[in-house]
Write a structure and sequence with these properties.
Structural class: mainly alpha
CATH superfamily of the largest domain: Amino acid/polyamine transporter I
CATH topology of the largest domain: Amino acid/polyamine transporter I
Distance between the termini: 41 Å
Strand content: under 5%
Radius of gyration: 22 Å
Number of domains: 2
């Protein structure tokens, strides 16, 4: 029975960390930290819950069922599971997350030197997606190319940036913004949505499992164990990065108080602390972080859609890579504005699906619990998505009056009530069959 050596296991963990550490993981913590100010601790806790805790639980849930989303969604039915999977893969693939990696890496890594114009963006994204396609077309070598070579360079650059944020802060912790005055934990929780890591974990599970199998491991228990270890390594690394970037943002109000996003905050900090050398360091960090994430996303999409449709893995990767190139050239602001309503709608479904899967030992019939709970989650997720898109006036007052509805968490109470009712029904429905047996 083949087992991974310690160095291979560490490389697997590094690969998993690099797959998750992308554009959103670097640009959203500084902006959340600056807005949270003195409430940075509570906001960071909420952010870590959705940005680290939920992705780790998702990896564990996927590892338990074999690494694929099809097994995870089996209790809600094949058709519903396929629709959900397609929505997730498109969101974290060619529609939002993959193009965002290219645009963010351009604006933070290249634009300070080339200027932020359409021609420079086009040239950069052509080179960027050429590199992404080169790595994604050979998925069996992901661990070697990313885990053993690219990630150590990325970690070294992050250590310098994170260490500087702690040792050389730009100022003192600033004031709290109005949004974070009343509920900093909830605001941090919602900001963690924007990293897309829980959705990413749903598709990276199969990438991690495939990487383990490519090293000759066939035992399902070992694959599960190694997947969980890889997830833990990634979780520790991401937590350290997030905390450092939260502190960087919270102490940068004096030099970046007018910044509109994390890109501007980070750029202001590195210019303030390191000058031109800092801009070069930031370019390396952002480019490598975004590149590795894009490779993982494109690989996962290729494996999923080539198994779903009568097309080859290579054809899917090339088609999605070219489509992502086109979307990336629309600009970062439009990408973020379009992605927020979709994420607000999809995230509750992902959270509830993972939670139910981890608790599957409590249900006598998974379908009796999963289907009503997921149906209610879908309804409220759609309503929250419509509200986030500016359509709050279209939503009945009953829904907007629910607890936490203003924070896009109106789904929480109805889902918990539905879960209790579905669990009770699950127990009652099983009694006659048990008695007759």
């Amino acid at each position: 029975m083949t087992r991974l050596k310690g160095s291979d296991l560490l490389a697997l963990g590094f690969m998993t960390f690099a797959l998750f550490l992308g554009a959103g993981n670097i640009i959203f913590p500084p902006s959340a930290g600056m807005a949270a100010g003195e409430h940075m601790g509570l906001a960071a806790l909420g952010f870590l819950l959705t940005g680290v805790g939920l992705p780790l639980l998702t990896i564990v849930a996927l590892a338990r069922v074999g690494g694929g989303m099809a097994m995870l969604t089996a209790p809600i039915g094949r058709s519903a599971g396929a629709v959900f999977a397609v929505a997730v893969y498109l969101a974290i693939g060619p529609l939002f997350a993959t193009p965002r990696t290219a645009v963010v890496s351009f604006e933070m890594g290249a634009a300070p030197f080339t200027g932020n114009n359409g021609t420079a963006l086009l040239i950069y994204t052509l080179a960027y997606f050429a590199a992404v396609l080169f790595l994604a077309l050979n998925p069996g070598q992901l661990v070697d190319r990313i885990g053993k070579y690219i990630t150590p360079v990325l970690l070294a650059a992050l250590l310098v940036l994170g260490g500087a944020a702690l040792v050389l802060p730009a100022g003192v912790i600033g004031a709290v913004s109005p949004d974070y005055q009343a509920a900093p934990f909830v605001q941090g929780f919602l900001q963690g949505y924007l990293t897309m890591d829980t959705l990413g974990a749903l598709v990276f599970g199969i990438v991690i499992a495939t990487a383990i199998r490519d090293h000759g491991v066939t035992d399902s228990k070992l694959i599960t164990r190694y997947s969980v270890i890889a997830g833990l390594v990634a979780a520790v690394g991401l937590s350290l990065v997030y905390l450092a970037l939260f502190y960087l943002g919270a102490t940068s109000q004096g030099i970046a108080g007018e910044a509109q996003n994390g890109v501007q905050i980070l750029t202001a900090y590195v210019q303030h602390t390191f000058g031109t050398a800092g801009s070069l360091l930031l370019a390396v960090v952002i480019t490598l972080a975004c590149l590795t994430t894009a490779v993982g996303l494109l690989t996962a999409c290729g494996e999923f859609f080539s198994s779903l449709l009568p097309v080859s893995y290579r054809a899917v990767v090339i088609a999605f890579g070219l489509f992502s190139l086109l979307v990336a050239n629309q600009g970062l602001t439009q990408l973020i504005s379009f992605s927020i309503p979709v994420l607000v709608g999809l995230y509750p479904l992902a959270i509830v699906l993972v939670a139910l899967s981890l608790l599957d030992g409590f249900w006598l019939s998974s379908a009796r619990v999963f289907r009503p709970v997921m149906a209610v989650t879908l309804l409220f997720g759609l309503l929250d998505g419509i509200a986030a898109a500016g359509g709050k006036a279209w939503i009945p007052e009953f829904f907007t009056a629910l607890p936490l509805a203003d924070q896009s968490l109106g789904w929480l109470l109805p889902v918990l009530v539905t879960l209790l009712l579905a669990t009770a029904y699950d127990r009652l429905a099983a009694r006659p069959a048990t008695a007759s047996a």
